[in-house]
Design brief:
With 206 residues, the chain is an alpha+beta fold. The chain folds into two domains: 97 residues, Ribosomal Protein L22, Chain A; 100 residues, Ribosomal Protein L22, Chain A, CATH 3.90.470. The strands form three sheets. It has a five-stranded antiparallel beta sheet with strand order 7-11-10-9-8. A hairpin with a 2-residue loop joins strand 1 and strand 2. The longest helix has 18 residues.
Length: 206
């Protein structure tokens, strides 16, 4: 069973990362597919993410999942709040009985470094020492992208300007926490993270 990472956040909230080593038939035998995905690997990621929901909470009602206009999956009765992310051969999910959540996983790639000025403000670039006068740290830049993406997933309603509306204030490597402010909801909160070899994870529970 390829559980790459699992975390019991509290009695109502669980998180997991699945390393996809199974065939599509394995997941299709365990979870319904809620939307048509034509690309084979993306379909496998989609199924693995859905599989994780019931792996984390065995009574998770797959059959009640709906898809919003923003493409965010949700349960109308809010029996559970949940968020899913996938990248490469990994799928991640966070599920909570009582809190809104968001999750993102990313594999560091050069593309993220090339677009850093589109999602990081000048204040953030200076605060986190990113730019031509500093050593380029691709995993760290990817972590900041993942942190903002987790805010976007938590919000779930689309239309977010990552550069101006999600502000990363500080990072504490000791606690693996990032303090952030989200202008659209006037909310300040903590983004939690883990950095694995070749994989970054960020999540919010609020």
């Amino acid at each position: 069973m390829p559980v790459f990472f699992q975390h019991q956040i509290n009695e109502n909230t669980r998180l997991g990362i699945w390393k996809i080593e199974e065939t599509e038939d394995f997941f299709k035998g365990n979870v319904p597919q809620h939307r048509d995905v034509t690309h084979p690997h993306k379909r496998l990621q989609h199924l693995a993410g859905r599989f994780l929901l019931q792996f984390l909470f065995p009574d998770f009602p797959y059959e009640l999942v709906q898809i919003a206009e923003t493409r965010k999956p949700f349960l109308s009765g809010e029996q559970y709040h949940f968020s899913i992310s996938h990248c490469g051969d990994f799928a991640a999910a966070i599920v909570s009985r009582n809190s809104r959540v968001g999750i993102d996983i990313e594999i560091p790639v050069e593309k993220i470094d090339k677009i850093k000025n589109k999602f990081l403000s000048e204040i953030e670039l200076a605060e986190f020492k990113i730019g031509p006068h500093f050593t380029s740290d691709l995993p760290f830049i990817t972590l900041l992208w993942s942190a903002k993406e987790s805010v976007f997933k938590w919000y779930g309603e689309g239309g977010v300007d990552f550069r101006t509306q999600i502000r990363l204030l500080s990072i504490d490597p000791g606690t693996e926490n990032i303090e952030a402010y989200f202008a659209k909801t006037n909310t300040q909160f903590i983004i939690h993270y883990r950095q694995f070899e070749h994989l970054n994870l960020a999540w919010i529970i609020n």
